[in-house]
């Protein structure tokens, strides 16, 4: 995004409850989100917060989806890979995430390399598989300059589980395409998605068509 375009965006949405998608990623102008962001003791003004968003690049997409579309909550399943006793943290190498849109429709996703506070997980050890509910939040990380990202905290309902499966990339792609099909459907304002009120089989066929096109495009891009 050019500096001119950035200045125009700020003029149009400064201090407003607006979330906009740009070529540099999602920019959230909401003062409420700014106030909720965990800055870990750093003094960050609203203007600096906007600039940090602009240069934060790619962030955790699934957690971001939970944050903006899933009412900040997520149901998670993961296997503990590491425990840092000194910092009081644990690491999930891969984590399954499920949340819900405002209309009651569920969506799934996955994230890699997720650190959390060990509080609540004290009795668990490396290699344990567990499930829990958690809050998704935005925070400032400073390991490589100032960047904003998303993480999970305040786990509840923690339980041991035998194992868990992560959705495949194809499953997640079909899920995204399903959302796109429903959003652009002529019945979108009358339908709650389940059950679909379009012609029998139409939604499934449309998703499959878009999926095959997306796979072909990916194959061509990879050479």
SS element count, helices: 6
Strand content: 25-35%
Low-pLDDT segments, ≥5 res? none
Mean pLDDT: 86
Give the terminus-to-terminus CA distance.
Answer: 28 Å
What's the arrangement of strands in the largest beta sheet?
5-4-3-6-7
Let me know the number of strands.
7
- How many strands, which pairing sense, and closed or not: the largest β-sheet? 5 strands, antiparallel
> Helical residue percent?
25-40%
In short:
With 223 residues, this protein is an alpha+beta fold. The protein has helices at 3-13, 31-36, 46-54, 61-69, 169-183, 202-221; strands at 19-22, 25-28, 73-84, 89-100, 106-117, 129-141, 147-160.
Structure explained in plain terms:
This protein has a five-stranded antiparallel β-sheet with strand order 5-4-3-6-7, with helices on one face. With 223 residues, the chain is an alpha+beta fold. It is globular, with a radius of gyration of 20 Å. The longest helix has 20 residues, at 202-221. It has helices at 3-13, 31-36, 46-54, 61-69, 169-183, 202-221, and strands at 19-22, 25-28, 73-84, 89-100, 106-117, 129-141, 147-160. Helix content is 31%, strand content 32%. The mean pLDDT is 86. It has six helices and seven strands. A hairpin with a 4-residue loop joins strand 3 and strand 4. Helix 5 crosses helix 6.
